Amino acid sequence: MASRSSRKKPGSTRRTPRILFSAFVSAIFAISAVFSGLAQTLPERARTEALARRAAERLQALQREADRLTSDERTLLGDLRKLEIERQIKAEELKRVDADVARVQTELEESSARMNALQASATAEIPELQQRLVEIYKLGQARYLRLLLSTPDLRRLGQSTRTVAALAKLDRDRVASHATTLAALKKERQALAARGAELATLRAGVQKAQAAAQRAAQAKTDLIRDIDKRRDLNAQLSSELQAAQQKIQSTLRDLATGAPAADAQLPFRPFRGALDWPMNGSVVRRFGRGSASNGIEIAAAEGASALAVHDGVVAFAGPFSGFGNLVIVDHGSQNFTLYGDLLEIGVKKGGRIDHGQPVGTAGPIPSGSDGIYFELRVDGQPVDPLQWLKRR
User: Fold this and answer.
1) Going along 28-126, which residue ranges are E strands?
2) 247: Cβ–Cβ under 8 A, 6 or more apart, which residues?
3) Which CATH number is 89's domain given?
4) In CATH, what number is assigned to the domain containing residue 325?
5) Residue 56 belongs to a domain
6) What is the model's pTM?
């Protein structure tokens, strides 16, 4: 990869030998602790008091966040109880709808059975009915005369006439009754089918509402689980910061009495999401987007100051291939910040650096403008700086 120790052209491309760089950074990380006791840029007492103020402010912010998380969890628990009641109501409603569907289905089956039986009976009677209708048709309008002529015994004429009339009326009544019953059964089936369709639609709606309540309840449960994790982390970070605060107070007492004071330093992890930006400007290249970038590029005016985001010791300060002028600050416990593409370097290797102190100035960056390259490593691994810097 091409060297960028001399970075005068804004459009130059970044070609870093990543393996070499990682090995170099690892070596820097291993020896950076050697310089933790070197010269300081502010009087020790003023610096320690500033650390105490910063620790107190961050503890207050963590406490506010803990209170907010507790309030959010109470709200979510209330919502979850309401959703559980709603799910129970929907479950009971679904049971009732299922019972109605089963009842309608049974009635529909019984109606179909009656219709089938009626139609089977009518089908069995059709030949006899047709034969009688044919005989009556043959008699025509002169049926009584033909009946008279076809009856050998005149004394049975009246009886035959009454019989024919009765049979004709019976057939008519049976046909009419059959038609009426069939029409009623069809109407009943139509009503039952409509009710069944209505219940099916209602059931689908209840199931949909029940599923929505289930999803909402699961989402609330996931949020509560996430809040619990964040509260646990908040408590852990607060504990780390309180321990550091106690050491700072001890250091201040030692300084007040003139006794040898231990080196005071704030832990890095409790400041996730609360670190000041290293430079005012816009992000023109994000972490890991479009390339294997381990950091971000921030565009700013040429010569703008690049500031340390946290207290630490300068582990490296000088040109480095692919990163121009580079400053690496060790914050302890394998936490580091890297400031690359600097036009000028304002610190020296081994020197202690305080939060907000300039480390250099903005220079040309690969995007074509001026600014800096900023990388953040936690436990020795690159992380997205935007998750650690204050939200704008």
Assistant:
1) none
2) 262, 264
3) 1.10.287
4) 2.70.70.10
5) no
6) 0.62
